[in-house]
Structures are given as C-alpha cells and as structure tokens.
Amino acid sequence: MEKKRTDPMAYQPGMERITSEILDKVLKNVDNYDYLKVTSRDVKQALKKDHLSIEDYGALLSPAATPYLEEMAKKAILETRKHFGNSIGLFTPLYIANYCENNCVYCGFNCKNKIRRGKLSLAEMEEELKAIAKTGLKEILILTGESRHHSGVDYIGEGIKMATKYFSTVGIEIYPLNVDEYADLKKCGADFVSVYQETYNLGKYEQVHLSGSKRVFPYRFDAQERALMGGMRGVSFGALLGLDDFRKDAFATGLHAAFIVQKYPHAEIGFSTPRLRPFINNADNNPNDVHEQQLLQVMLAYRLLMPFAGITISTRERAGFRDHVIGMVATKISAGVRVGVGGHEEEEKGDEQFEISDPRSVSEVHQMILNRGLQPVYTDYIRV
Amino acid sequence: MTGQLVIGGHNFNSRFILGSGKFSLEIVKAVVENGGAEMVTLALRRANLGGEENILDYIPRHITLLPNTSGARTAEEAVKIARLAREIDCGNFVKVEVIRDSKYLFPDNYETIKATEILARDGFVVMPYMYPDLNVARDLVSAGAAAVMPLASPIGSNKGLCTRDFIEILVSEIAVPIIVDAGIGRPSQACEAMEMGVDAVMCNTAVATAKNIPLMARAFGQAIESGRNAYLAGLGRVLTQGEASSPLTGFLED
Lengths: 384, 254
Ligand code: SF4
Description:
The complex is a heterodimer of chains A (384) and B (254). By secondary structure, chain A is an alpha/beta fold. Chain A has helices at residues 22-32, 40-48, 54-60, 69-84, 122-134, 153-166, 179-188, 202-208, 217-221, 223-229, 246-263, 292-305, 319-325, 362-371; strands spanning 87-97, 139-144, 169-173, 192-194, 234-238, 268-272, 310-313, 332-334, 375-377. Helix content of chain A is 39%, strand content 12%. Chain A has an eight-stranded parallel beta barrel with strand order 1-2-3-4-5-6-7-8, surrounded by six helices. Chain A starts with 21 loop residues before the first helix and ends in a 7-residue tail after the last strand. Chain B is α/β, with parallel strands linked by helices. Chain B is built from eight helices and ten strands. Chain B is globular, with a radius of gyration of 19 Å. Chain B starts with a strand and ends in a 21-residue tail after the last helix. Iron/sulfur cluster is lined by residues 100, 102, 104, 107, 109-110, 145-146, 214 of chain A.
C-alpha cells in the first residue's frame, strides 16, 4: 500500500520561516512564462539590450533563440571578458560524508540506494585537505549528503575551521540551514553557500523528493536568503537540468538569483548548471532533452542576464565542453575532482554521488587554461 | 613638459595607471614596458601569498604598487586589507575600494570616506575609488585622500565618460589629483578625459581584452600623453557658427 506523503509546502519542526516575497514572485513569473510564444523578433530585441528584462531573459531561453546561439555566445564572451578579464577560478569539492536522509530519485546518495556510506573523521579530513592543498588549490567546496543526524552543523563547522587553515575560500554545499546556523558557519570561516533547488516545478519537486527534509520546497527555496541574512558573502543557484522542463527551470533559477540580488545588492551570485548524470544502481539516469546545445543556451542566458555572476562548469561535463565554455561564459572550473567520500589522500570511504566525465588533475586543468590564453586564478578572496 | 604627477609627495612621469586585476601575470610586465605606466594596482585578494607564483615577481622594481582593497564591503574590511598589504611589503599606497553592489560594482562613498579617514591617519597614501560627487570628493580630501578616483562608467563597461560633467566639476573644484578610474574603453576616451584636465587615467579591462595587448598599452600611453598636452596647450573654443575675424561690434563709436 502506498504511504501517504507529506505536503511539500508544509514546514517540518525546527525549520525557520522567514518573511520573503521572492518565492511568490518567481513562481508567478514562471507560471506566465510561455516560451513557445516567443518569436525570433523577441530574441533579436533581447540581444540588443544591455540590461535584460524578465521577458528578454525568457526569450533567450526559448526554442526561438536556438538559431541565435552563436550571436548569444559572441555577446556573452564580451560580457564575460568585461567583468572577469581572462581569469578562470579553480576549486575542488571535498565530500566529507555521504549519509543522506532524503530520497531524491535522481541522486546516488538517496537513502534507499544501496551504496557504501561513510564520513571522514576530523583527522581524515585534515589529511584530505592537506593533500588537496598540495595541488596548489586555494578554494574548496565542502559537501555532505543531507543528514543532520550523521553530519551535524557542529561537525561541518569543525570541518570548515580546519579547511580555513589550508584554503583562502571555503564554500559549503550542504542541507539548508536556519539563519543562526548559517551565522555560526560563517564564524567558522565559510563564506559561500550553494543550495540547488533542482526543479522549481512544485508538482515535479514533490514527485522526485519522496521523503526527508528536502521535500519541503519553500524551506529550500529561501535558503540563499537565510544564508545572506546569516552574513554569508555569496550564494549559488542551480536547477538540475533535465529533471523537469529545463527552460522553465532555468528561467526560474535566473529570476530567483535576480530577485535576491535586488534585495541584497552586496551578495555575490553564482550559478551552476548540473545536468542529470547516471549513478550507482541507475545507469539510465540521463539528462533527457538537455543536450550540450541546450546546456550552453542556459549558460549563455545566465551570463546575459547577469554579466557579473560567477558561473561554474562541473566535472559532470566532458573535457571538450568544459574547455570551450570557460572564458566564454563559465568563470570557474573544478579540477582534481572525486565525488566519493575522501579519496584524495585516504582511501575512499564512501561511494560516489554520480559519475564524472572529466577526471583531469589540477595541473592538467591549469595547463589547459593557459593553453586557451586564459589565466588560472587560485584565490580571489581575502577573509578579513 | 607635461609636468609631473605628484601624489602623496611622490613624483610620477607617467599619467597612465594600470589596473592589473584582469591580466595574466606575465602580461603586466609587457604592458608596463609598452604603456610606460609607473603605477600598477594589485588586488590583494588575488595576491598568492606564500604560493609558488607571486604577482610581485612579475612587476618590475621601479613600479609603484597600488594595492587595492577590492572585496571589501565595509570601511572596516578595507582597513584590514590595507594593513595586510602593508604587512606584506606592498608599500604605503592604497586604493580604497569599498563595494556593496555586486551588479554594477559601484563604490559605497560613505564607507569609502570612513576608510580613507582611518587609513590616512595611519600614514597611508590613500587613493579612494569613488562615485563622482562633489561633496564626497571634498569630504575625502578633508579625510586625507592624496587623490580621488572617480569612475567614468561602471567597471568593465568600456562605456567611456558617462560621468563626464561631474568629473569636470571635480576638476575645477578639487585640489588633489583627479584620476579617472573604471569604464574607460578606448584610448580616445582616455585622451578625452585628459583633455578635460584630469590628472591621470587608470585602465584595465580595455587593455586586458585587446587582441594585441602590448600595442593597446602603447596606444593608451600615447593617448594619455596627448590628452595631457592638449589640456596644457589650452583647447580652442568650439563654435557652432562661423566667427567673424574682426569684431561685429567694432563700428561703434561712442
Ligand atoms: S540530492 Fe542531496 S539530498 Fe537528495 S539524495 Fe542526493 S545528497 Fe541526498
């Protein structure tokens, strides 16, 4: 018999509710977004603008914009150059735990998937951090599966403190927190927070987040805002492209970020553009209709909407794609990536979240950046 | 003949200040050599402290470093970054940049004044990046700024002198050097700024994104010098109608 599932709009105990109008604004705009009505004339108009309106942005994400991809790229490369010069930031993720209490049907860490679970002790974490620091990297992104029970805020805080000994920039990609918890992690030394909404379509969200705290749609949606309220300097946004209608999801992601920066002008904004990937016990998990062409369109639209935003290109994509999008649209690239728990110095303690497509080391990525006439940047931040 | 630029008691022959934020390190040297810049900014947050490659190794010795406080969102953070710069031997100059706007990167004038006051008291030669507002420029001078650096247009926009009229007011009212910073996209715009009487021009993106960087650096160096000469020579008036060479009212007898 099927279990009765909870309402994804209902908060669970302990989750802080903030007053914010952004969720409503985004969802309303997405409801009204009909990309099939966009004409090539709308696209051409949008391409002429310095500052895109919501409609212009929608036009660039529509199928009507497909023939204009090259033009979008030409414009995007200029915008990227203006704001970032020829700099490309380098970083690597470190998975410190892969326990997860959620059941997201698209992810290898989901609590129903039979994989090896693990969590680094602080001593093991230090070994990993040292090994990564040896490659020259200065920026690290600490990740966990979403389990408050196995990887509590205190544990993550200790990890962040240790990371600050070796890295000038520490970002976190963990489960959403309350404002005071973000403030605590900020004190520990984290400055940037990534939370991906995966899909902005509530119905789909409900279908793919079967249980666990992630099922609460608005709590996740407001995470960036709570992070900024807790004093974080920057926040990242992303939809998991291919999970639902990628055009609508990308549209929502851009607006989410745009409304946040309107309200918090100091916030540094980042975008990530993950596509669905196969994972252990599910080799068929695929990005459906999001081919490289569509992926690039989304990246270009983000760039033209927010010329100043950082855009990260993940190791989920193949080397050839990554090499071409840096400098044109992406400003940050990961290198030397392991998506299992540990595995840089210590033997891997837990299985991977998804399959990666670009296993190159830091020095290989560094050399590739130079070969493309760009400048690898290891640090772009000073913690004061 | 162009006269020297004096900032905080230091003399500079060149009025071209190079922003290094968007360059590959090895290019900085080439630009300095071709553009003749004697002062180069250094984003401290980019300086690879203790790492293998240090930006300081790429900047010729005769160059005055202008560490900036980019990344600072408050006066307090700017002060901390400036002090850190001094600790790692970047000298006494500091470009104060306090930005709380990630979209346009406009400077926060209020926090900038506060930081300038503290750093000037600390003995720094303070060059604040500012939104061109006369009252603010006056406050900055009272706070101890050695120069003021109004923006021409948003950083990286290459739009040129959008704030032209306001910068002209600063030129006529403010006694310390006025250095146009941010938004200059072409040598002709740099030249135009110099013709208006500003004391120096800073560029970064426009050079960094050129196809031939050394050549563009040279073009900027020349444009800045040329604009300076034009200013010193005194620009002729711009007339919309022809002017009779003898006065129209010369016939009057009493
Ligand atoms: S996506 Fe995140 S929350 Fe969902 S199963 Fe994977 S690790 Fe857990």
